[in-house]
Amino acid sequence: MNHLNYPTPDTFTRAKSAELFETAKTYFPGGVHSPVRAFKSVQGPPVFFERGEGCHLFDVDGQAYVDFCCSWGPLILGHVHPEVVERVQKTVANGMSFVAPTPHDNLIGKLVLDNHRYIEMIRFVSSGTEAVMSALRLARGVTGKSKVIKFEGCYHGHVDSLLVKAGSGLVTFGISTSAGIPESFAAETIVVPLGDEEALASALQQYAGEVACVIIEPIPANNGLLIQQQEFLQYLRKVTRDHGVLLIFDEVISGFRVGFEGAAGLYGIQPDIITFGKIIGGGMPVGAYAASREIMEQVAPVGPVYQAGTLSANPVAMAAGFATLTELLKPGIYQELEAKTTRFTARLQAYCDQKGYDMSFPQAGSIFWPTFTRETIRKSSDIDDAGMRLFKVMHLECLKRGVYFGPSGYEVGFISSAHTENDLDFAASQIEASLDVVFGK
């Protein structure tokens, strides 16, 4: 596969990327527009990319990489999928923004609602963070209550009241993790340990009559891949109903990734509100929140909960999303994605077992996580910092061999329909070589 110009440890360079990064730092805070892109958790300057095709990325130094970041998940069909590109180009040729309804809205709305049994109405926004922000406001508006319960280790975007960590104790008010967030905002959020039924029940009892909603990533994938037991999610659904509290599934990552109906469909659980992002825009900036007709008709202009956006349901984003979701409805695509991912992670696990490397590769559908332990991790507090130091070495060694992971050991990997068995075999061999360096073998 050398025709793709994969780097090797002897040829790898970031000369042009480094030059661009130095210039970028004079224009933008830290030289980037989102913190993880600065490569602070790994080594060297960030790689600047100029092109993607299928499962490959191509950097400004002319090197190719097998891409397991996939734009943090939305590129489930790979880069520049022909059906998506064709629909986007036709749409762009007719105009990029009208700040008015377009037929694209109806097309994608019908497609989603006809094929997702857990929602009846949907509202499009411009990002996953905006979707979560809107869902929280909706939950508070519907219930007339103000407090939110979230779980330690689940990330819901940079919403002020959710950018919090737990204080000391089993059930605590949130403590803000960013400057610029008043503690009064954080205090509206109650943080409990992930997967802890006792703590959840205690929080709901302690703050009875004050809690609007409980929000969770049903498949937490922003702080490692913390796969939850189905029994806990079922308990979560039951106890929130018992207390008259709305349940929000944040499916910005898992939605349309582990199945067309996301984690709700995978586990057979009906949340009250679901937030979407990533895949629903086919790589374009987009998000959405959805629920029953009764709940969604509380949103303006029908109801009293205000939410608006100049670029909401942008026609280009809607076109990209419609093309992507249409492909995902073709028979067998999710089964093929999961089978490819299972084969890939099984090969890596077998290699680590043979070598005695302390690693495992938890998986949910086409999401996987290379983690430096054999223990099952269901809470972020169980992640060992030593593993992050090992990932730092692995990340650089993989870059040198033409394999691209997101620049943080807490981030997960994604496989797309564009990853062929040959691509995955090549990537696996390079990851194996990288792990030999990590473990000094």
Shape: globular
Order of helices and strands: HEEEHHEHEEEHEHEHEHEEHHHEEHEEH
Q: What would the average pLDDT be, to the nearest integer?
A: 94
The counted number of beta strands is 16
For the record, the CATH class of the largest domain is Alpha Beta
Number of domains: 2
CATH superfamily membership of the largest domain, which one? Type I PLP-dependent aspartate aminotransferase-like (Major domain)
Tell me about this structure.
The protein is of the alpha/beta class. The protein has helices spanning 15-24, 82-93, 103-114, 128-143, 183-186, 197-206, 230-242, 262-267, 293-296, 315-328, 333-355, 385-400, 421-438, and strands spanning 49-53, 56-59, 64-67, 121-125, 147-151, 164-166, 172-176, 189-192, 211-216, 246-250, 273-276, 287-291, 363-364, 367-368, 403-404, 413-414. It contains 13 helices and 16 strands. The strands form three sheets. It has a nine-stranded mixed sheet with strand order 4-12-11-10-9-5-8-7-6, sandwiched between helices. A four-stranded mixed sheet has the order 1-2-3-15. The longest helix has 23 residues, at 333-355. 49% of the residues are buried.
